[in-house]
Every structure is written in C-alpha cells, then in structure tokens.
Amino acid sequence: MTAQQAPAFFPGAVALTRLGVYDWEAADGVCGGSPHMHTASTEAYLVLSGKGTVETIRQSGYESYDLAPNDLLWFSPGTIHRLVNEDNLEILVVMQNSGLPEAGDAVLTFDPGIMASPERYAEAASLAGGPSSSLPEAARARRDAAMAGYQRIKEAALAGRHDVVEQFQRDAVRLVQSRVPAWQALWDETIAPEAARTETWLKELAAGGFSHFADAAVVRAEAAGPERAFGMCGRLQKWEPGRQA
C-alpha cells in the first residue's frame, strides 16, 4: 500500500457514527428511536453522555439494559433493539461491516402487513420524496410505525410467545434475501480485504520483515455535513471517506 493508497475508511471494516437519540415521545409514553434488527452485523454502543436504556428482544426473550456515560454494550445479529432517551442520551455507535447496514442490513419492526410486502416496507422505511422541512415529521412517522409493530413483538416476548419473535425474524430474512448477493460482493470488495491485509502483515512480521511500514500513513476524515442527518434512532453525525493528512 503506497501513500496514495492509504485506507480511506475507518480501520477494521467498521463504521463510526455519533448519535443523539431522539427525544420524541412514543405511544408508550417514553422517548426514543425506531426499533430495528440487524441481520448480518454486530452493533456496539459507547455512551458519551446522558442517560437511557436499550430494550432488546431475542428468541430467548425481552431484556432492558441501563445506559450511562462510559457504558459499552454490543449485540449480535438477530437482536431487536430500541433505544430509550431518558436524559439527552448521546452515543458513539460502532458498527461492524461498514456499508452493509446502509445497504439494507437493518430491518425496522413494522406490522406484519408491511413486512409481508417488499414494496410497502420500502415505502414505510424511506424518508425520501419530500422537502427537507418534512424530514423530522417523516422520521417521527417512521419511528411511530416501527413502534406499532415493536409493541406487538414486545408484548408477545413478555408473554413467552417466542413464535412472534421468530416470525418477525423470518419476515426480515425474506425481505433482505434478494440483497445478499450484492452484500456478498460488497463484503468481498471492502470488508474481507481488511482481514486478509492483517494476515499478510502477520506473515511478514513472523519472518522478520516489515516492508509494510514503508507505507505507513495518517488519514484524516471530515464531518459528512454541517448538520446531523435523521437516522433510525436519532440525529446522526457521520464522516466522509478519509484523506491522507
């Protein structure tokens, strides 16, 4: 890797996002983001400030975890999760497989009727198509629609009805299944090489070599924009691909 080939994206095939969790009150009387599940990526939360909880639902049932500054928590694919903002909750999100969540790895907990139709799901999940001034309303409406389905799943999980949880997971897989070949291509091109690069370095180091040191580089990334975007769980601050510093 030459200086011109310095890695443009954050190391380790992960993505970093600063998240200010929505303070919009939901139908159950608490504030928070849109419940969803990742199908192929592990997600981590490092709490920067504020206070809240993350509710999780797996096939094993429902659990809630307190979140306070310096708490670090992560969960693997298949975990339905919902962030609750109790007091200005700010989080640094570390997401595995950078690019896959943006390609549709995350599935919102909409009602079964929406989950049954790829077209209806795409329409419900999208914030596109309206003027920028409507984005907060669109994001809130999407959150509320996800909450409607989530409440049904949560009630079933609390009652020990794991079949409802499994049905949502089955519906989620059906929604993303056609995208997996594109995900595989993305993984082959951008994610797998990260591990392969480290393997090459280890082999060289074991032989006493260090030619990769000649390509050492420092990379700086700039904020993606002056304002945070509207995401599933809150206002997002992302970073552009880096450039050599």
Explain what the structure shows:
It is a single chain. By secondary structure, this protein is α+β, with helices and mostly antiparallel strands. It has a single domain (3-209, 219-238), classed as Jelly Rolls, CATH 2.60.120.10. The chain is 32% helix and 28% strand. The protein has 5 helices and 11 strands. Strands 1, 3, 4, 5, 6, 9 and 10 form a 7-stranded antiparallel beta sheet that branches. It has a two-stranded antiparallel sheet with strand order 2-7. A hairpin with a 3-residue loop joins strand 9 (229-230) and strand 10 (234-237). Helix 3 (135-158) packs across helix 4. It is globular. The model has no long low-confidence stretch (mean pLDDT 92).
Structure keywords:
Jelly Rolls, 11 strands, 245 residues, alpha+beta, single chain, 7-stranded antiparallel β-sheet, two-stranded antiparallel ribbon
| CATH homologous superfamily heading | Jelly Rolls
Using DSSP, what is the number of strands? 11
For the sheet with most strands, the description reads: 7 strands, antiparallel
Global structural class: alpha+beta
Q: List segments where confidence is low: pLDDT < 50 over at least 5 consecutive residues.
A: none
- Count of discrete alpha- or pi-helical segments spanning 4 or more residues: 5
Query: Strand-residue fraction?
Result: 25-35%
Taken in chain order, the helices and strands follow as EEEEEEEHHHHHEEEE
Shape: globular
The radius of gyration computed from the alpha-carbon positions, rounded to a whole number of angstroms, is 20 Å
The CA-CA distance between the termini, in Å, is: 16 Å
Whole-number count of domains: 1
Helix fraction by DSSP (H/I, runs of at least 4): 25-40%
Q: What does the oligomeric state look like here?
A: single chain
In the CATH hierarchy, the third-tier topology is known as Jelly Rolls
CATH top level class name: Mainly Beta
CATH architecture: Sandwich
